[in-house]
Specification:
By secondary structure, this protein is of the alpha+beta class. It contains ten helices and eight strands. The radius of gyration is 22 Å and the shape is elongated.
Length: 284
Amino acid sequence: MTWVASLQAAIDYMEEHLLEDLSIEKIASVSNFSAFHLQRAFSILTDVSIGEYLRRRRLTLAAHELTRTNIKVIDAAYKYGYDSPEAFSKAFRRQHSVSPSKARAYAGKLQSYNRLVIQVNLKGAEPMQVKIVEKGEMQVVGVNRKFSLVNGENHKKIPIMWEDAHADGTDELLFKLNDGAIEGVLGVCKAGYGDKMIDYWIATTFAGNPPESLSKMTIPASKWAIFEVHGPMPDAMQKMWKQIFSEWFPSSGYAHAGTPELEVYSDEDPYSSDLYSEIWIPVK
C-alpha cells in the first residue's frame, strides 16, 4: 500500500464507521502507520487532529439530518455519539453557531465539513534540500515532559516548554554541552505511552554523564532524511513539515522508521529571515 493510499484508507475507514466508537489504534490498523505517526501525518496535512475531524464530520451529518428529517434532538444526540442532549447542543452550537432546534427551523447558516480526499503534489513547486545519511547510536541529554495528543495539547504546551528552557538557562547550558555529533539544540519527539501521549525533549548530543539537572536518552542507530529549513521560526519549520508530508513522503519511497524524530536549532536569532535549521526524520 502506498503512503497516500494508506492515509486515504484510514480516512475511508473513519467515514465508514463514523457513528461507531473509534479509537486511533482501530483507525491505524487499516493503514501502514502506527497510531502516533498516523495522527502526526494527519494533523500536519489537515491542520486538525483526527478527533477534531471526527467531531466536525459527525456534527455536519447531524445538522443535515436535523434539517431534512423529523429526528428528535435527543435521538440525534445519542446517534452521533453524545451522552446527553445538553452535551450535543453545546457542541452543535460551537460548530454551527445555532442550536439544534434553530437549525431544524433553517435559522442561520450551518458550518459544513466535507469528507476528506487526500491529494498531494508530487512535483514540488519549491525545491527541497534533503540528504540521506546513516548514523550510529547517539546519546542526548536534556529535559523532557510528557504531553497529551488530545485536542492538540502538545502543540499548545511545547512552545511553553521552550520558553521555560530559555528563561531558566537550560538551552544555554545545552549549547555549551553539545559534543558536535549533531550541532545545535534539539527538539526530540518520541512516540509512546499508547496513542494519546508523547515524550518531548529539549536536548543536545553529549556522550558523557549529564549534570544533575538533566536526563539522558539513547537515540538508536538510524538512516536519516535530513531536510534543510531556511527562514524564521516557527513558520519556516511548520512549512517544511507540511511539505515533507504532502510532497516528499508520497513520492520518495521511504517510510517513517518509527523512532524519535529531531528538529535541530542553532543559537542564532530565531526570527532571522536567513536562519538555518534542520529536520531529521528516521526512515526505512
